[in-house]
Design goal:
Blueprint (H helix, E strand, L loop, with lengths): L3 E4 L2 E4 L5 H14 L18 E2 L4 H4 L21 E6 L12 E2 L2 E2 L8 E5 L2 E5 L11 E6 L6 H6 L2 H5 L18 E2 L2 E2 L11 H13 L18 H4 L16 H12 L14 H4 L10 E2 L5 E2 L7 E3 L17 E3 L21 H7 L5 H8 L3 H12 L2
Bound molecules: heme C (2 copies).
One heme C binds next to helix 9 and helix 10.
Length: about 375
């Protein structure tokens, strides 16, 4: 589109497309693109897998939203938007299966397992490389919605740290702390394991799609030394892309795409102070300031909290222990159908009733609200 800018009496023509718009469009194309496996001959350009969960970002983030638990006709998780994270209480991966179960693989190799799912419970079958280690734990992770993340990236470290209270100095039972990853504050993913969208996109390429990026330059994604048949597959690393399958420019385009996805419009409803009175706002902080003076109404402190036994998964990721989770932002709740990290709750009320640990008091206060207040609070949260 051509725009005419009258300026100082002169007429300037802007280029047909703003450079940032072009980045966004290229980022979207890469986000939507289904990757294919590297050919065994030279001139490889793709490089899916060898082990993977899905072929594209889009497959797991339909309409930039949260995943769903879709089952195939055998009752197995179809792999779209729902993955099984594995690891132990000390932060180590499984020595054979790595950090995630990849249920798909390139031609000639089989996925690591089949995951059956029924009524919130899953059952891992047909492990392709023998049993997992005794201390390996596993837990579901539903993909998260992607709107507004560019704003969360702009919140200053100071604004996040201002709400941290690791030793619970104010004695309110709530002790949020940041997940520090390579010296930076983690902000993204259920345990705040990625400090930036660039790193999160790189992690996704590695764990979910099996492709190398500057963030994780291993062409074999989550394949371990024990998975020799996986390491024997061709890869798609090429000089053309800095020796990688996805180079820094491509990852940059995807980052721009993510940064520009708009936040949900603010709710028109008022909570009549109930949200704070019940203690929800102690973690789901309604608004955080960005470095450039905007406010981000995400309803999160981006900090980790011990959420009790009910939600614990026994998997340490960075500083986040097996009982800790990042306060999930509540903006966009109006579009949410499955709640919590593994999608086990089907409503806001159910999600609240899984809260324990540091959130036990808030849950108890919620359950002792009058029916009218409860109704109003739920209506408010459902409108976010
Ligand atoms: C196999 C499914 C799958 C694929 C493919 C996938 N994701 Fe995700 N995505 C997830 C899951 C699951 C999470 C939560 C991860 C966690 O907590 O560790 C997630 C989280 C994210 C987040 C963090 C959102 C937040 O609120 O913190 C971003 C950003 C993201 N993905 C971007 C991408 C991009 C970009 C791609 C493609 C390069 C991609 N994803 C591919 C499943 C997927
Ligand atoms: C101690 C901190 C804390 C308090 C207090 C708290 N929450 Fe949460 N909330 C969290 C964390 C952390 C998660 C993510 C847990 C998970 O996924 O396992 C979460 C998740 C949720 C979810 C699911 C979000 C989603 O998109 O899946 C909802 C809904 C929610 N909280 C609502 C509330 C309400 C309403 C209150 C007040 C009654 C409240 N919370 C109090 C920390 C807290």
């Amino acid at each position: 589109m051509k725009r005419v800018l009258p300026l100082l009496g002169l007429v300037f023509f802007t280029p047909p497309s703003h450079a940032g718009d072009l980045d966004f469009a290229m980022g979207k194309a890469l986000f939507d693109r289904p990757w294919t496996s590297a050919p065994s001959s030279t001139q490889a350009t793709d490089g899916l897998g060898p082990l993977f969960n899905a072929r594209s970002c889009l497959a797991c983030h339909p309409k930039n939203g949260r995943g769903d638990i879709t089952l195939n006709d055998k009752g197995e998780i179809g792999g779209l938007g729902y993955v099984i994270r594995i690891g132990n209480e000390k932060g180590g991966p499984d020595p054979v299966y790595g950090r995630q179960l990849q249920t798909n693989a390139v031609h000639g190799l089989s996925g690591e397992a089949h995951v059956l799912y029924k009524d919130g419970y899953y059952d891992i079958r047909d492990l392709a490389y023998g049993p997992m280690a005794k201390d390996t734990n596993y837990a579901g992770r539903l993909s998260q919605p992607l709107h507004g993340l560019g704003l969360l990236e702009k919140v200053s470290d100071d604004a996040i740290l201002a709400n941290a209270d690791p030793d619970d100095a104010d004695n309110n039972g709530i002790s949020g702390r940041p997940n520090i990853i390579d010296g930076k504050i983690g902000r993204f993913a259920w345990k705040a394991t990625a400090p930036s969208l660039y790193i999160q996109a790189g992690n996704a390429f590695s764990n979910d799609i099996g492709m190398s990026t500057p963030v994780n330059p291993n062409h074999y994604g989550d394949c371990t030394e024990a998975q020799k048949d996986c390491l024997a597959q061709p890869h798609g690393g090429t000089e053309m892309f800095e020796g990688l399958e996805i180079d820094s420019k491509m990852l940059g385009h995807i980052t721009t795409y993510l940064q520009r996805l708009k936040a949900p419009a603010p709710t028109a409803l008022s909570d009549d102070g109930l949200f704070a009175k019940t203690g929800c706002a102690d973690c789901h902080i309604p608004s955080l300031p960005t470095k450039d003076g905007q406010s981000v109404t995400a309803y999160s402190d981006l900090l980790l909290h011990d959420m009790g036994d009910g939600l614990a998964d026994g998997i340490r990721e960075g500083d986040a222990t097996g009982r800790e989770w990042r306060t999930q932002p509540l903006w966009g709740t109006r579009d949410t159908k499955l709640f919590l990290h593994d999608g086990r709750a089907k409503s806001v009320e159910e999600a609240i009733n899984w809260h324990g640990g540091e959130a036990q008091n808030a849950k108890d206060r919620f359950n002792s609200l009058s029916e009218t207040d409860k109704f109003n609070l739920l209506r408010f949260v459902n409108s976010l």
